[in-house]
Write a structure and sequence with these properties.
557 residues, FAD/NAD(P)-binding domain, 28 strands, alpha/beta, five-stranded mixed beta sheet, Protein-Tyrosine Phosphatase, Chain A, globular
C-alpha cells in the first residue's frame, strides 16, 4: 500500500487489502472511503471484508462505489459530504486512486483555485485533464456548448502576445486570430527602471490594451484556467471554452511576492520598494532622492527572472544619483544576489565591476532574501555558499529595492504542456511544442535557455509567426531562434553597457564595434534606451514591423 497525500485531510491509494488496515491505522488515518464497486475484478476483496478489517482497527469507513469513468456531479457532492462527516485524515481508494482523486477535485472546486487542485493531483501522480472543465465550472458538468473557435488563439496580451499577433496577421491576414488576456492596461516594463531613476514619467509606460490590439484581431478579455491540448481547447475562467487550430502561449511571469515573508505587508512603505511594479517604481525614485545616509540593499532572487540585469540597474542608477549629489560616501550600498556571479555573460562583467568599485558597493553572492520586517527595517537572507551549510543572517536597512522571486503562472505550471520544472516545453530553435505540433510558445514562460526580456520576445515573434504560417501552408518550420536577448545595463545616468547575447552566452551585437561596443559603457547605448527603444516598442514591435530582426533560416543542407 502506497497512499498519496492530496491534502491535509485526504490521501488516496490503489486497491487495498484487508491486512493493509493495520498499517492504515498506524499511519494515523482515522477513516476510509471505498470508491470501488464490488466485483470489478476477480481478485478484489469485497467491501464487507475491508469494512470488518477497518472496524477491527477502530477506523470509520464509508462505501461510495463509482463506476469507472462515470463520476457524476452528485457523486462528488456525496464525497465532499463524507469528508466533512468522517474524522480525518481520511484514506480513499479505488482500483488506481484516480476515481478518488477525481471525486476530491470536483468536491473542492468551488472553494479552491483550479491551479491548486490540478497541482495537488499532479503531485500525487494523477492527471485531472479529463475533468478540468468541470473543475473550472465549480465541480459541475458544463451545459454550455457554444464554444468560440479561431484559427489561431494567443494566450497573453503582453509584449510577446501582441507582437506575435501582429506578425502573424501581417503574414496571413485571412486567419481568424484571438488574444486572450483579462488586463485593461498594457505596460512597457523595460521603462520602469527609468521611472525608478526619475528619468521617465510612469504614465509613458502604460497604454490601454484596447488601443494596442491589432486591427482584425479579436480580444477576449478573460483569464485562462486550463488547457485541453488533445481537444484543441482552452478553458477560460467561468468555464467558457475557446477552440483553436493553432495555439500560441505567451503570458507573463508570476511575481511571487508572497514567497518572501512579510514583503507584501511592507511594499511601498518603510523604505521597501521595487521597480518590478508600475505603482512602486515612483516610490523608488522618492526613496533615492530622500536617502542621505544609511544602508541601501538591492536584492536579486534565484533565476529565472524577467530581465536579469534589472536588480543591478536599480543599484547603478541610485548610486549614480547619490554620487552626483555628494551623499554616496555616507551610504552603504549592498547587492544581495542569490546567484554566484554579477552577470551571466562574462564578457560584460569587467565593465560592470568597475562601476561596482566606483560606487563602493559590496557584492554579497549566494544571499537570498527570505523575510522582511518593514517597520523594524530588518531583512533576513539565507546564505547558501557552495559546499557550506545554509546560514540565515539578519541585515538592517534604510532603503531596500526588492526583485521578487518569479515562476511561470499557476495555470501554466500545472498544465499538460509544461516540462517537469513548470515551463512550456518547446524546441529551442523553432519554439514549437515538443509534443503538440500545433502549439508554439514565446516570451517568459517557455523553457528555451535564453534571457527573459522584451528584446528576446521581439526576436521570437517573427520566428513563431513564420513557423506557424509555414504550418498553415503545409510546410515544415523554416525560421530559427538563436537565443537572442538584450539587457541595456544602465550603469550611470547617460551611459549604458548594452549586453546582447544568445544561447550559451554567444555575443550577438546589433551594431559594429566602431558604432557601439556593447562591452563598454557608451552614450550611444543610453540614447538607444532612452529615446529610440520606447517608440520602436510601441510603433514597430507591437505593430508587426520587424526592423533589424529577420529570423535565421533552417539550413537547406
Amino acid at each position: 500500500m502506497d497512499p498519496k497525500k492530496i491534502s491535509d485531510e485526504l490521501s488516496v491509494a490503489p486497491q487495498i487489502q484487508p491486512e493493509d488496515l493495520v498499517n492504515v491505522a498506524e499511519l494515523g488515518f482515522r477513516s476510509v472511503i471505498c470508491n470501488r464497486p464490488d466485483g470489478e475484478a476477480a481478485d478484489q476483496p469485497t467491501f464487507e471484508e475491508i469494512e470488518a478489517a477497518a472496524q477491527a482497527q477502530g477506523l470509520q469507513i464509508r462505501y461510495l462505489p463509482i463506476t469507472a469513468g462515470k463520476v457524476r456531479d452528485e457523486d462528488a457532492d456525496d464525497f465532499g459530504k463524507a469528508l466533512m462527516e468522517l474524522p480525518g485524515p481520511t484514506l480513499a481508494y479505488c482500483r488506481t486512486g484516480t476515481r478518488s482523486t477525481t471525486l476530491w477535485s470536483l468536491s473542492v472546486a468551488k472553494e479552491k483555485p483550479t491551479a491548486d487542485i490540478l497541482a495537488a493531483a499532479k503531485a500525487a501522480g494523477y492527471d485531472m485533464a479529463g475533468v478540468v472543465r468541470r473543475i473550472v465550472n465549480g465541480g459541475k458538468t458544463p451545459t454550455d456548448t457554444g464554444d468560440a473557435k479561431f484559427d489561431v488563439v494567443i494566450v497573453g496580451g503582453g509584449a510577446a502576445g501582441i507582437a506575435v499577433a501582429s506578425s502573424i496577421h501581417a503574414r496571413k491576414p485571412d486567419l481568424e486570430i484571438a488574444i486572450l488576456d483579462p488586463a485593461d492596461i498594457h505596460y512597457y516594463q523595460p521603462g520602469w527602471t527609468m521611472v525608478g531613476a526619475g528619468i521617465f514619467d510612469p504614465e509613458t509606460t502604460a497604454k490601454t490594451m484596447g488601443s494596442l490590439i491589432p486591427k482584425g484581431v479579436h480580444w477576449i478579455k478573460s483569464a485562462v484556467a486550463a488547457f485541453e491540448p488533445k481537444d484543441n481547447a482552452v478553458v477560460l475562467d467561468g468555464c467558457r471554452v475557446v477552440k483553436y487550430d493553432r495555439l500560441v502561449i505567451c503570458p507573463g511571469l508570476k511575481l511571487d511576492w508572497h514567497k518572501v515573508e512579510g514583503l507584501v505587508d511592507t511594499l511601498g512603505k518603510n523604505g521597501v520598494t521595487s521597480n518590478y511594479r508600475y505603482d512602486l517604481a515612483p516610490y523608488t525614485w522618492e526613496l533615492v532622492k530622500g536617502l542621505k545616509s544609511g544602508r541601501a540593499l538591492f536584492t536579486q532572487p534565484p533565476m529565472p527572472i524577467k530581465c536579469a540585469g534589472a536588480p543591478q540597474k536599480a543599484l547603478y542608477l541610485s548610486s549614480d544619483h547619490w554620487l552626483r549629489t555628494g551623499v554616496l560616501k555616507d551610504i552603504d550600498v549592498n547587492f544581495m544576489n542569490a546567484g554566484g556571479v554579477l552577470f551571466g555573460v562574462k564578457d560584460y562583467v569587467p565593465a560592470l565591476e568597475k562601476y561596482i568599485e566606483r560606487y563602493d558597493a559590496k557584492l554579497n553572492f549566494f544571499n537570498n532574501l527570505v523575510a522582511v520586517d518593514g517597520p523594524a527595517k530588518k531583512a533576513w537572507f539565507d546564505v547558501a555558499k557552495p559546499d557550506t551549510p545554509v546560514e540565515r543572517i539578519e541585515v538592517e536597512f534604510d532603503m531596500m529595492h526588492v526583485c521578487p522571486p518569479q515562476t511561470a503562472p499557476d495555470f501554466i505550471r500545472v498544465s499538460p504542456l509544461a516540462d517537469a520544472a513548470g515551463w512550456i516545453d518547446v524546441d529551442q530553435a523553432t519554439l514549437r511544442h515538443k509534443e503538440y505540433d500545433n502549439i508554439w510558445s514565446l516570451g517568459d514562460v517557455m523553457n528555451a535557455p535564453n534571457a527573459k526580456t522584451a528584446a528576446a520576445a521581439r526576436m521570437q515573434a517573427p520566428v513563431v509567426a513564420e513557423n506557424l504560417v509555414d504550418d498553415v501552408n503545409g510546410k515544415s518550420p523554416t525560421a530559427i531562434y538563436n537565443g537572442y536577448g538584450s539587457c541595456p545595463l544602465t550603469v550611470e545616468r547617460g551611459k549604458i553597457v548594452l549586453a546582447e547575447f544568445g544561447y550559451g552566452g554567444t555575443l550577438l551585437p546589433s551594431f559594429p564595434k566602431f558604432i557601439l561596443d556593447g562591452t563598454k559603457p557608451t552614450r550611444a547605448a543610453w540614447i538607444l534606451k532612452e529615446q529610440i527603444l520606447p517608440p520602436v516598442y510601441w510603433r514597430a514591435m507591437l505593430r508587426g514591423k520587424e526592423w533589424m530582426i529577420k529570423p535565421e533560416r533552417v539550413s537547406a543542407g
